[in-house]
From TrEMBL:
<feature type="domain" description="Carbohydrate kinase FGGY C-terminal">
    <location>
        <begin position="280"/>
        <end position="478"/>
    </location>
</feature>
<keyword id="KW-0418">Kinase</keyword>
<dbReference type="Pfam" id="PF00370">
    <property type="entry name" value="FGGY_N"/>
</dbReference>
<dbReference type="InterPro" id="IPR050406">
    <property type="entry name" value="FGGY_Carb_Kinase"/>
</dbReference>
<comment type="similarity">
    <text>Belongs to the FGGY kinase family.</text>
</comment>
<dbReference type="GO" id="GO:0016301">
    <property type="term" value="F:kinase activity"/>
</dbReference>
<keyword id="KW-0808">Transferase</keyword>
<protein>
    <submittedName>
        <fullName>Carbohydrate kinase FGGY</fullName>
    </submittedName>
</protein>
<dbReference type="InterPro" id="IPR043129">
    <property type="entry name" value="ATPase_NBD"/>
</dbReference>
<dbReference type="GO" id="GO:0042732">
    <property type="term" value="P:D-xylose metabolic process"/>
</dbReference>
<dbReference type="InterPro" id="IPR018484">
    <property type="entry name" value="FGGY_N"/>
</dbReference>
<keyword id="KW-0859">Xylose metabolism</keyword>
<feature type="domain" description="Carbohydrate kinase FGGY N-terminal">
    <location>
        <begin position="19"/>
        <end position="244"/>
    </location>
</feature>
<dbReference type="Pfam" id="PF02782">
    <property type="entry name" value="FGGY_C"/>
</dbReference>
<dbReference type="InterPro" id="IPR018485">
    <property type="entry name" value="FGGY_C"/>
</dbReference>
<keyword id="KW-0119">Carbohydrate metabolism</keyword>
Length: 537
């Protein structure tokens, strides 16, 4: 939600009464500048894509550096166009990125192996061993799983590891020189002890004992970033860091940074879902639900991550590797068709038409079935994936049914995972949704409400996303430095979201029943995925 000079004056930009958030997502690096009232005043972005190299999903560090500079340059150009001034400073800065994965460095801070992102699911033996030994679910994509798998596989580089971090932690270190991480992002590397707010000491000792048995002597705690809660100071932008963001030299050093966070944490902030009994659903390349817990889960569940809010409160996370990418691919095909017949209407219009058609589809999808599995999916037991559209001879292939099943494919695996939280009697007062999928009003929101069988809210800030969320966290850190006494949850409620408009969709009985029927076929059809993986490489 961009605002103009009526809300933010040129003097505010020049004086640095703004905060800047940068988020490195799966397909875009976004920069968001917010004003003193936390409204967005300028934006910039850069498109990038992961690469599948030697059967590993990765991004090169050169692509990281180039993308940061490109996104900042686009933001600076937007500032100059809107306000007629260069962007020389901001009041505070924050960086967030995709959680989890594996970035291992030697003592000279040289990357030892290509960045292994959250999307890699080749860590099954390590994740299973750690989950059993720690009595805590350690998913495939967590940094601890990646490290332990490398140890089990006897990878040559493990003896040279001097530090481990996430993508947000890496960028933050390049900007400030500090090896730190926000507690929410850190909780996707290794389990956090809620009592201490840092890595669980007993579990660290267990990991060290397991690793030592395979010849890995370094204490894991010495390799991981220091953990910081929301509001804590996390360093200052160095001259080298300023040059990385802005090679033109216009941006000055000396800007304070908040703790770097993961995209799950910034999603919680962007939806005001950081207090117990609140939750959010973030839909992008991956899709996940976060529910802030009142009490620990009764049992360990492989399909449920336990992570934390940016303040360190425990969160149950249902994470699905595959989100809206396949829907986006189909929208691209329909866009090409429209252009081929002389109706180049643009991608937003194509998405709006597809999502609008989905509401006209039969509640059960008319007998069609769609899987959006571009990569493996833990919840459904898949190490790899193959996107598929299936139908029986008696199914009804219409645009409406096709569109509905594609949206169902985005939410299908999430719905299966959310059943576990329902079985645990986890209380949810509000579930808020955000991400580009919800920009078309009322469609994805309504079908998500059916998938989770609960009311789903979309706030006026829902389209802002994680870059805005980390900018807000930077603003909170600046406020705390200035004496702000309120918790993050209270500050968000009373300052940031006090006037936010919210639209709530209730689950419609016909949609709930139709999706239940669809999911029965969806689960029964999972062996088709296994067969497709075996047959195609």
């Amino acid at each position: 939600m961009l605002v103009n000079n009526e809300t933010l004056t040129r003097d505010d930009v020049v004086a640095g009464r703004t905060t800047l958030g940068i988020e490195l997502g799966s397909t875009n690096i976004k920069a968001c500048l917010v004003g003193p009232d936390q409204t967005t005043v300028a934006v910039g972005s850069h498109t990038w894509e992961n690469q599948f190299v030697d059967r590993v999903w990765t991004y090169s560090l050169d692509a990281v550096h180039e993308g940061l500079a490109a996104a900042f340059a686009a933001l600076a150009a937007d500032v100059r166009q809107r306000y007629g001034v260069p962007l020389t400073t901001v009041g505070a800065l924050g960086v967030s990125a995709m959680m989890h994965g594996y970035l291992a460095f030697d003592a000279e801070e040289r990357l030892l192996v290509p960045f292994r992102t959250w999307r890699n699911t080749s860590t099954g033996p390590a994740a299973a061993a750690l989950t059993e030994a720690l009595g805590f679910n350690v998913p495939l994509r967590w940094s601890a799983s990646h490290l332990y798998q490398a140890i089990l596989d006897g990878e040559e580089h493990v003896g040279q590891i001097a530090s481990l971090t996430t993508l947000a932690g890496y960028v933050h270190r390049r900007l400030t020189g500090r090896h730190v991480l926000g507690v929410g992002d850190a909780s996707g590397m290794f389990p956090i002890d809620p009592a201490t707010g840092t890595y669980d000491a007993g579990m660290l000792a267990t990991f060290d004992s397991l690793a030592a048995g395979h010849g890995f002597p370094a204490p894991l705690g010495d390799l991981l970033p220091a953990v910081l809660p929301a509001g804590a100071p996390a360093g200052m932008l160095t001259a080298e860091g300023a040059a990385l963001l802005d090679p033109t030299g216009t941006l000055a050093a000396g800007i304070a940074l908040c703790p770097p966070e993961g995209d799950a944490g910034t999603g919680m902030v962007a939806t005001n879902a950081v207090a117990p009994r609140t939750g959010n659903v973030s839909a992008g390349t991956s899709i996940f639900a976060m529910v802030v817990l009142e009490r620990p889960l009764a049992r360990v569940h492989e399909e449920i991550d336990v992570v934390t809010t940016p303040s360190g409160d425990p969160v149950a996370m249902v994470h699905c590797n595959n989100g809206s990418s396949e829907l986006g691919a189909w929208a691209g095909v329909f866009g090409e068709f429209a252009a081929a017949i002389g109706s180049d209407v643009g991608q937003d219009a194509v998405f709006a038409a597809l999502l609008g058609a989905a509401l006209q589809g039969e509640p059960d999808g008319g007998g069609l079935l769609a899987y959006n599995y571009l990569s493996g999916e833990t919840i459904t037991g898949l190490d790899e994936g193959r996107p598929l559209v299936l139908r029986t001879p008696g199914s009804r292939l219409t645009l409406a049914n096709f569109a509905r099943t594609q949206v169902y494919s985005v939410f299908g695996t999430l719905a299966l995972g959310m059943r576990t939280l329902a079985d645990e009697d986890v209380a949810i007062d509000s579930l808020l949704a955000h991400g580009g999928l919800f920009r078309t009003e009322g469609v994805a929101q309504r079908l998500l409400a059916a998938a989770v069988d609960a009311p789903v809210a979309v706030a006026s800030t829902a389209g802002e996303g994680g870059a805005w969320g980390i900018a807000v966290l930077a603003a909170y850190a600046a406020a705390v430095a200035g004496g702000e006494p309120r918790t993050l949850a209270a500050w968000l409620d009373e300052v940031v979201f006090a006037g936010a408009a919210t639209v709530v969709a209730q689950p419609e009985p016909a949609d709930v029943a139709g999706l239940r029927t669809y999911l029965e076929t969806y689960e029964a059809g999972l062996p088709i995925q296994h067969a497709a993986i075996t047959a195609t490489h």
